[in-house]
Amino acid sequence: MNVTVIFYSLYGDTAALAAAVAEGAEQAGATVRLRKVAGLAAPDGRSTTSERIRAAREHLASVPLAQVDDLLWADGIALGSPARYGAMSAELRRFLYCSPHFAGDLAGKVACVFCSPSPIRGSQRAVLHAMIAALLRQGALVQAPALAQMDEASAAARRGGPPWSAEGEAAARLDLAPARALGRRLAMIERRIHG
User: Fold this and answer.
1) Which residues sit opposite 32 in a β-bridge?
2) What is the pLDDT of residue 185?
3) Contact 164, 192 (CB under 8 A)
4) String of DSSP letters for 109-165
5) pTM of the model
6) Cα(132)–Cα(125) distance, integer angstroms
7) Which residues contact 10 (CB under 8 A, 6 or more apart)?
8) Whole-number Cα distances in Å, 34 to 56, 116, 119
9) Burial group, residue 47, by CB count within 10 angstroms (0-12, 13-18, 19+)
10) For residue range 144-195, what is the model confidence (pLDDT) as tens digits?
11) CA distances from 123 to 33, 129, 179 (A)
């Protein structure tokens, strides 16, 4: 089974979640492609002065750019975006909507979505819904994360909270257990559906 994890990340948080989703899918026996979406603009003053952006860019330099073929190759697809004031990143949106060759070609593929934390209430939910809608338009079968699939220690610590409530901005402080669980679940459901 083949899984593609496609994401956009400026500061590195979404990239850390994407790597954890990929790790979880590999743990479940999937062959995984981890791909980043190209930025829309050339590096500006902010990206050259921000240490976090510069470090994330250097860290992600070896990750290949996503291509339409990565979606067509995959049996399972995971999409990740930062929460941009309740909208998925323009970079990911451009990738999904400006690739006319695969309109409807995701029919029957299993998919899931994830996004990095946001301090703005409801922002993550809106981003996840937007990504789900994009996948549904392409015919994908979207599955939700299940907290029961997490490691027991992480699940016990998180009872009562929303599935993506990590505090802080630094990738080192993200709770990656739900992302790994999401990747495992994506691979397991894809295997059940397509054998």
Assistant:
1) 3
2) 92
3) no
4) -EEEEEE---SSTTHHHHHHHHHHHHHHHTT-EE----GGGS-HHHHHHHTTS-TT-
5) 0.83
6) 10
7) 39, 53, 56, 82, 89
8) 15, 17, 27
9) middle
10) 765 444 444 444 444 444 444 333 344 446 789 989 999 999 999 988 887 6
11) 28, 10, 18
